[in-house]
Structures are given as structure tokens and as C-alpha cells.
Design goal:
The protein is mainly beta. Strands 1, 3, 4, 6, 8 and 10 form a 6-stranded antiparallel beta sheet that branches. The chain has a 4-stranded antiparallel beta sheet with strand order 2-12-7-9. The longest helix has 10 residues.
């Protein structure tokens, strides 16, 4: 089940959901409108699953930053979110999609117990200017079924993520960097 906006507000108030910073005006019928953080990593060169991704880091100035097609950007949410009670699902929204921005298509699930600022995968269909703090998508909370298993208490490679994190698939690849 997806929580409604009023249920999200109640869970934030009771401490079952963390959204920091939290603004009740960002609640909608079934979601919370999350925002883009203030920094992007721009992946450079060829990508190789067996090695760490090379990147440059770019703060987003007050005048915005133009995203270009054929580039892979890694961003971060402004908000840190989490819950030991609920799982999360983070997606872009129609407004961002209408600008030709694909965001966080490959990994929308935030496990129960995961408390993070989300790393975002961002692609642009055409040159488009983005701004730190702009609404970038929707976050929904899901009520899980079954015994809880907190992500933070597992030996998961992204459990300690608190900002932009490159792919660490190389840690699993035979011959990859450990």
C-alpha cells in the first residue's frame, strides 16, 4: 500500500518517517515532492563496470547549470529520507519529464531502514538548465508485507551512502578493484 499525503505527515510527526528538511507544503495526495541538491558529478570517459567511474564534481550555481545530452550526471537529493517502518520509492515526475530529463530510472526502491540522501542518475534529451533546490520528483512510502529487515543492519555496499555515490559494481566483478 502507498501512504497518502496525510499518512506521510502523520508518520513524519510520529518519527516513523524521516524527511530532512521537511516542508508539509511539499506533500501531495500520495507523495512528497523532493528537490535536487546543490552538486552534480559528471561522469567522464568510458564507463567500465569493473573499475570505479571517473568524474568531475560541479556545484550548481545560483544561475543554474545546463545539462547536455550524451552525458551521465549523478546528483543528490536535497532531502535525507528514511524509515525503519516503510520502504520508499523515488521517481522523477511529469514536470521534469516534460523538460526531457530522465532521473533515477534504474533504482527507484529505497529499502526499509535505508536513511539517505539519494544518489540520482540524470540524463537530458536536450540541453536544459537545472537549479539547486528545484522540485525534481516524487517520493512515495510503501507499507511492506512480512518480517522487517532493516537495510542499515545488512552488509550492503550502499548502506552508508550520504551523498553522491558512483557505481560500486566493481566490488562484485571478478577481477574488479576491491
Amino acid at each position: 500500500m502507498i501512504l497518502t499525503g496525510p499518512a506521510i505527515a502523520s508518520a513524519v510527526q510520529s518519527g516513523d518517517i524521516t524527511i530532512d528538511p521537511y516542508n508539509p507544503g511539499r506533500l501531495s495526495a500520495n507523495a512528497y515532492d523532493w528537490r535536487l541538491g546543490d552538486t552534480l558529478r559528471i561522469c567522464v570517459g568510458d564507463l567500465d563496470a569493473a573499475t570505479p567511474t571517473a568524474f568531475t564534481e560541479q556545484p550548481i550555481p545560483a544561475t543554474g547549470l545546463v545539462l547536455h545530452p550524451r552525458a551521465l550526471y549523478l546528483g543528490v537529493t536535497l532531502e535525507r529520507t528514511g524509515s525503519e517502518t516503510y520502504a520508499q520509492m523515488l521517481n522523477g515526475d511529469r514536470t521534469i519529464g516534460s523538460l526531457g530529463i530522465w532521473v533515477h530510472v534504474s533504482a527507484p526502491l529505497g529499502h526499509q531502514g535505508h536513511a539517505i540522501r539519494w544518489t540520482l542518475e540524470i540524463r537530458a534529451a536536450r540541453p536544459v538548465r537545472v537549479y539547486a533546490g528545484m522540485t525534481f520528483g516524487k517520493l512515495v512510502f510503501l507499507s511492506p508485507f512480512g518480517a522487517p529487515a532493516s537495510y542499515q543492519q545488512q552488509r550492503a555496499k550502499y548502506a552508508a551512502t550520504d551523498g553522491i555515490d558512483i557505481s560500486r559494481l566493481y566490488e562484485e566483478m571478478p577481477g574488479g578493484i576491491q
